[in-house]
Amino acid sequence: MRAIASLALEEFQESLRNRWALSAIILLATLAFSLALLGSAPMGETKASALNITTVSLSSLSIYLIPLIALMLSFDTIVGERERGTLLLLLTYPVARWQVVTGKFVGHLVILAITIFLGYGSTGLYLLFSTTGSSGDWSLYVSMMCSSLMLGAVFVAIGYLLSVRVNDRATAAGLAIGVWLFMVVIYDLLLLGLLLSANGQNLTPELLEALVLLNPTDAYRLFNLSGADAAALLATSSTVAQSTAMTTPTALLGVLALWIVAPLAIAILLFQRREL
Amino acid sequence: MAAVVNALELNNISKTYGNNCVVSELNLAVAAGESLAIIGHNGAGKTTLMKLILGLTQPSSGSIRLWNNTLNAQRTAASYKPIGFLPETVAFNGGMTARHVLNFYARLKRQPPSQCDELLELVGLTAAAGRRISTYSKGMRQRLGLAQALLGQPQLLLLDEPTTGMDPFLRRHFYRIIRERQNEGTTILLASHALTEIEAQTDRVVIMKQGCALIHGSLNELRTAAQLPTLITVTLMAGQTDTLLHAVAPAIRHRRVNGEQIEFSCTEANKLTLLRCITQRRDCIKDVQMTAPRLDDLYTHFVNGSVD
Fold first, then answer.
1. Which residue of B has its CA nearest to A103?
2. Going by fewer Cβ within 10 Å, which terminus of chain A is more open, N or C?
3. How confident is the model over A212-223, as pLDDT tens digits?
4. Chain B residue set in contact with A, beta carbons under 8 Å
5. What phi, psi does B273 have (nearest 5°)?
6. pTM for the structure as a whole
7. What span, in angstroms and rounded, lies between the C-alpha atoms of B295 and B302?
8. A2 three-state secondary structure
9. Would you tell me how many other CB atoms lie within 10 Å of the CB of residue A253?
10. How many Cβ atoms from other residues are within 10 Å of residue B42's Cβ?
11. Integer Cα distance of A108 and A124 in angstroms
12. What is the ipTM of this complex?
């Protein structure tokens, strides 16, 4: 336990030192602020509240941004230390390999949490004190932040999986970009293409639902859209959102949790088998 | 059972990566408190051997015992505890200070932070402890590497080419620290590619080549086994070379260097005979120089099978 705490602390301090956390917080805060300020413009002051609009638009932004941030944070954690030579020394210490992975994961999770809660939370506070935000649903905003953290954790775990598997940093970076592109962009395009070409035939709602659940980013999207009744605001996502309306938030969170645990477990397993 | 406890025992250890055999059927026993040097070219299997002992890789066959406990694939955390390791190219997180890094390692070894200051003092890094490691020279990094290896009073120290990048002064200081630890009962295993460097630093030497131990023993034992010739160069007065050669027993090999110098290469057995012969004719001799076989010659002898 102490070993895990030490490793987590080290990872945390490193990201503070190299300004990674700071730049990520500034990035998220800036984007959240711009969305909060601009988001209400096309809507006027009618219908949905500024807070709900911000929640929905922030969640669609997070789908792209959070996985990218999480992968950047995690892709070189093992392979980078291997390349620099610090991993060799670390593993001669009385720490098990699963503790190394778990410790780093805890550290990265804390960094992500701070980044998300400070980055998005600052905008939330701004909306709270500005008059427009008072009418919105705060629980949605908070659950958006929490599910964003889970989405981040998913991609941290996937990043570890890559990091453990490959032999050099460049490969890990390339694969990380590939994973991001596939899971965040291409997967949905394929799904959309399938939906259009099948034109409702062959493709049962159950199958579509299963396909959506296979991808953690879609689970995240659905979780935040089905929560907010503002789903209809986003035309592009509405097809998917409506066809799987039966998907409960608990099930969606379960999918995210599974996507955290499984890659992490496989990463630990591969790392334990790995010869140095 | 003998009373002597072996700190380390390698029984028929082999390690292959694909078709490449890095260590083959190596047997080695290191008694507790002994210091042993492993000498070999780059790629002779020294580092792999260290990794096997540390459990970073698993042997393809054979077994490793540390203090009479067999190492298995699932090493328990406790079995790491008495080992200190200094890797060949020690690397640290360059952005952190030496004190921070050492504290981190101390926590992992469950040692009090006070030990860090003592060790930084010992390796002479107290003044630089607050600086980022990226500003350190190779020698300073190596010293920090030694400091982390000494955390927690290890009973076994594995040092992989520890003095690379150190100047002669630091090197001497380094070996003094190591010797002190050995006097306190620490077992030392040191890998190096230069026999000259570890002269008088270790009890025993193993020379490795392509994963095999060619020979092991103390340096004197190696000298005896190698039977390398001692070179005696005699400078004579002009025209006196033949006078001396006539007097010397023909069994001693010689070579004329130039008109007034002769180089004899003689064994331990006929060295004294030759010297007596030379001193009897001292009136025609200007100078005598004797060169005992150097450690590098010993090493080359065992690795190549001859001295070049």
1. B108
2. N
3. 888 999 889 888
4. 51, 54, 56-58, 77-78, 80-81, 83, 85, 87, 89-93, 95-96, 100, 104-105, 107-110, 148
5. -60, -45
6. 0.84
7. 11
8. helix
9. 17
10. 9
11. 23
12. 0.83
